[in-house]
Design a protein that fits this description.
The structure is a homodimer. By secondary structure, chain A is an all-alpha fold. Chain A has a single domain (about 1-320), classed as Farnesyl Diphosphate Synthase, CATH 1.10.600.10. Chain A is about 75% helix and about 0% strand. In chain A, β1 and β2 (about 90) form a beta hairpin. In chain A, α1 (about 1-15) crosses α3 (about 40-55), α3 packs across α8 and α7 packs antiparallel against α8 (about 155-180). Chain A starts with a helix and ends with a helix. Chains A and B meet through α4, α6 and α7 of A and α4, α6 and α7 of B.
Chain lengths: ~325, ~325
């Protein structure tokens, strides 16, 4: 835990000394506003922990860590425009606080900045290449997500591929970048990457659950927002799979109602239906399965257990294995 | 001219063999749609010509050339959302043909792809670094442009700084990238960069003129579009400078009218006012001054004249010195 706290502090200090200012201020204020909001710093932490595990220099790994956090925040700014999300981390989103044009443009600048940060260390070209790859994958994932809004029948494999691209690959790349900076061998980098993929899948399913089964104070988003927006999450797809013909038709109908309908009532009815079908438990089972696979990949990394301890602890904390 | 045609063909062939496809198709179709439209390929040509001038390998320079064209098209896709431009090169813009979400996302993917292309040659890290720098400058320029829409008093120096950032730096960077790939020395790269800046300023002023003093068939955009959208171009700012108090007030009033007003009538009145004040001639004078400065920088490059001939010819063709 000491190591985790230290890396968190080091990253916070690195962020604090980074200059996010510039002119015109309309371009730069949203960047600082977004990136300096308190966040879990999950991707930087995965990068720093992976680098530390293989004995890499922290000073070098702070750059890809910053690149990852900047990149991640760029995706949030642009996604929030598309999702018309008013709030994020309990604060107004950039497109809401400023406007969509500014949100597009500061996002673009952040994406460019992310590449600049990634290029700083000795292995900069490799890191920038990984960033380019993951950036394109995430665009693919987001486009799939947008397609799902209007698509009649989304399958569970399609949904899983979407969250792999939209969420999991970035966690995997964060680990890969950290290990790359440290000069880890290819086989270990691949295990760590696959650890990240499975962990990411597990986290996203957890997010799907938390969107409904948590409250706004702890999660920072509106309760049942996915249902209100007719998002075809794993919960919804699993419910369709488990439902009787009659329930299925009702659920599909509810997911055609637009925002102007009584939102609370709709969320309540869907939740009652999910509860009756034990959807939450079914999704948790799949989530835990990804979780198990993730840690099997970590086990396979060719390092003594004590080297993996910090990353393991960190991932366990996040996945709720450890409180 | 043979060399210019050959490089144009080589770049066209390189583009044709590049795979812009992928899934989901909603993400990739707009990319191919935009980048495969016929365009001048100005930035790739500047890159290839600069590389050729210093005896660089064409095969290496084709990558930054592709990066520049991809990057440039990304800026068009995003700018068209912000400018609500329905047409570009005589074709519907991406946000118009698909929608704004798709335009945001395919633009993002193109920006990431541009970095991937820039990273391909041996000097990839340097090229990606230059791309990152210019990308941020262009965002600054576009934000200034957006600010000007609502700003009461834009000065001529502010306008010039905006077009430097929004247009000129990318032409300069194209030359810089080509010369960098070829291993030119710093002093020459700087002269070439400054050549690009001045050429870019001249081109943008020419564009400002052409927006009003040309027709849709040859220019591919609506005649007087800048006036219809109340864009404070150099023409407008120069007119304010030259106008009597009465004309100035009238012009400022006309530039507060929104689209729902009779557009044609407004464009005609503004044009008549410009003509009376000889605004076109005044802007042309400034344009030619940038043009002169550009070629003085080219003269200063430490190479025998015959090495500069192709780039000189190409730039002269574009700036209208040579027909």
């Amino acid at each position: 835990m000491e190591k985790i706290k230290q890396l968190q502090q080091d990253f916070a200090a690195f962020l604090a000394q980074t200059d996010f200012g510039g002119n015109p201020k309309e371009l730069y204020e949203p960047i600082a506003y977004t990136i300096l909001q308190s966040g879990k710093r999950l991707r930087p932490m995965l990068c720093l922990l992976a680098n530390d595990m293989f004995g890499g220099e922290e000073q070098e790994a702070l750059w890809p860590a910053l690149a990852l956090e900047t990149f991640h925040n760029f995706t949030l700014i642009h996604d929030d425009i598309m999702d018309k999300a008013p709030m994020r981390r309990g604060m107004p989103t950039v497109y809401q606080k400023w406007n969509a044009d500014i949100a597009i443009l500061s996002g673009d600048a952040m994406l460019a900045k992310a590449f600049q940060y990634a290029l700083q260390p000795k292995k900069g070209a490799d890191l920038a290449h990984l960033l380019g790859k993951v950036a394109i994958e995430i665009c693919e994932g987001q486009q799939m997500d947008l397609n799902f809004e209007t698509l009649g029948n989304v399958t569970i494999p399609e949904y899983l591929e979407m969250i792999r691209l939209k969420t999991a690959v970035l966690l995997a790349t964060a680990l890969q970048m950290g290990a790359t900076v440290a000069g880890a061998d290819e086989a270990d980098i691949t295990h760590l990457y696959d650890f990240g993929i499975n962990l990411g899948m597990s986290f996203q399913l957890q997010d799907d659950i938390l969107d409904l089964y948590s409250d706004v104070a702890t999660f920072g988003k509106k309760h049942g927002g996915d249902i209100a927006e007719n998002k075809k999450t794993y919960l919804y797809l699993k419910a369709l799979e488990l439902a009787s013909e009659k329930d299925r038709r009702r659920l599909e109908y509810l997911f055609t109602l637009r925002m102007d309908h009584d939102e609370e009532e709709k969320i309540e009815e869907v939740q009652a239906l999910y509860d009756r079908l034990h959807v939450k438990e079914a999704v948790e089972k799949v989530m835990l399965d990804y979780d198990r696979r993730a840690f099997a990949e970590l086990d396979a990394v060719g390092l003594p257990e004590e080297k993996k301890a910090h990353l393991r602890t960190y991932a366990e904390l996040l996945s709720g294995r450890k409180k």
